[in-house]
Amino acid sequence: MSAFLATLSRELRAYFFSPLAYIVMAVLLVVNGFIFWLIVSFLSDPRASTGAPLELFFGQTFFFWLILLFMTPVLTMRLLSEERRSGTIEVLMTAPITEAQVVLGKYVAALSFYIALWVPTLAYAGVIARYSTVDWGPVASGYLGIVGVGALFLAVGVLASAVTRSQLIAALLTFVILVPMFTFGLLENLINNEIAKQIFGYLNLWQHMDDFAKGIVDSRRLVYYASATVFLLFLATRTLAVKKWR
Amino acid sequence: MIEAQGLTRRYGDFTAVDDLSFSIEEGEIVGILGPNGAGKTTTIRMITGFLPPSEGRVTVAGKDLSSDSVGARGSLGYLPEHVALYEEMRVVEYLAYRARLEGVGRSQARGLIADALSRCLLEDVREQIIGTLSKGYRQRVGLATAILHRPKVLVLDEPTIGLDPKQIIAIRELIRELGRESTLLLSTHILPEVELLCDRVMIIDRGKIVAEGSPESLRANSAGDSTVRVVLKGSPPDAAAILSALPDVTRVEAAPNGRFEVICAGTADPREAIFRMVVERGWTLLELVQSRASLEDVFVRLTTHEKPTAPRASEVVAQLDENAEEVTE
């Protein structure tokens, strides 16, 4: 436990000391702020259909995905690849720590930082609550979706970072896996075969987020994120065990 | 304290370490010597649990590295050949992180960190960011991490590399001190260092142990020819011929400035005969030194596979000389 906590706190510290993290944070806030403004001004037009701003924010626009697809690789690319490139992996893995503790420590640090990046967007809900009424249920489930999908995406990033010594390759690899993972589910609407349609439907992340934003929490989806995350982190642990000295 | 049995490591078709077995007792200081590519670092990486052996097993402080890896690693302190550190951290921060990684409690860590900083002469850079430190300081930060948690077994791969002569002396002093507290395995290229520090030496070549024993016993066993160096003032022209005529002398090599290397068979000692002869002739004797077979001779002899005149041997000697000079300066 001590070894896990040591890794976690070191990685968190590394996030907050790196300029990259601040760039990601700034870009995220600017983009989110702009989208939020766009949505609010759209909805405040008397001719617009009625709708909840935060529902649109997380659900029906593609902005959320755009941010997520670009942000995840940047957050995870360094985690394991840099240890191997610089050689710090040698003193790390000769300390009394298991590969699983290393992977988990780094993953939890990335997830914590990711969650910290979204915290300022709570202000949007606060702003709406001041001038209008907010249905807090869908807001909560929307954030649950953000954390769930983020957890899955970051696990992909951690695995990619375990595979290579190069941060750039790790980032590209993450991106190349995430894009199909996201678009794959969209095929649901292009397939007529009933069984295939159901499978794609199960994996349709867009639909997932749409439902989360509306306040629909489907436990099968949470099971999907959790199981896929655990599997990916397990693969990352095995990869690290095999590749650490190469 | 360290027990290796049938340790083997293959990289594809290449066998880097070949069926190595040895055991290091508690409190011993053991040196691993060998030319570049002999398998020193591979062996050390297998002992520290970084590299899984292809065959064989290692136990550290009674714990098997494959079945109780974390336990075995817990009693180890390790300074790798290439010291890699987290560049963005401060020296104290890094040590605090390492202490936590080793499972040292917060209250205890404070004292241990202060101790490691002072022993490795790092007090003046404790608040500096590691990325800004020179090679010598980084090396010492690496050493401080290795000794931080007072491990039972210390493994140091080339500990004095990149240090200036003053630091080398200080670090050697520290290593000797550490040798009183822990079992120490030391790999080095610098032969005088082995003679100065180690109770026992293992010479490794091509992944096998080619010789093992105390520095003295290794020297004694390599019963080669003994050499006496004679320096005569004004280098008398017929000196070489006269010296060769002395009993037991097999060969004389003349060097400039009146220097002669008198090579004798076995353990014969011609110094007395040389002295009398010089006095008889009325020459002036400036130097008369018997050189014992050095560990370097043993090393070169054991790890040279081509003819002694082949480039590789001379390269090795040249490098060793360089190292020796570096150290003695």
Estimate nothing, just give the exact number of structural domains of chain A: 1
The coarse silhouette of chain A is globular
What is the CATH topology of the largest domain in chain B?
Rossmann fold
Strand content of chain B: 25-35%
Q: Could you state the order of secondary-structure elements of chain B as H and E? A: EEEHEEHEHHHEHEHEEHEHEEHEHH
Give the overall shape of chain B: elongated
Rg calculated over all Cα atoms of chain A: 19 Å
The CATH superfamily label of the largest domain in chain B reads P-loop containing nucleotide triphosphate hydrolases
Average pLDDT rating of chain B: 84
Tally of helical runs of chain B: 12
User: First CA to last CA of chain A: what distance?
Assistant: 27 Å
Major sheet characteristics of chain B: 6 strands, mixed
The domain count of chain B comes to 2
Largest interchain contact:
A-B, 26 and 29 residues
- Name the helix and strand elements of chain A from N-terminus to C-terminus, one letter apiece: HHHHHHHHHHHHH
> What fraction of the residues of chain A are assigned to beta strands by DSSP?
under 5%
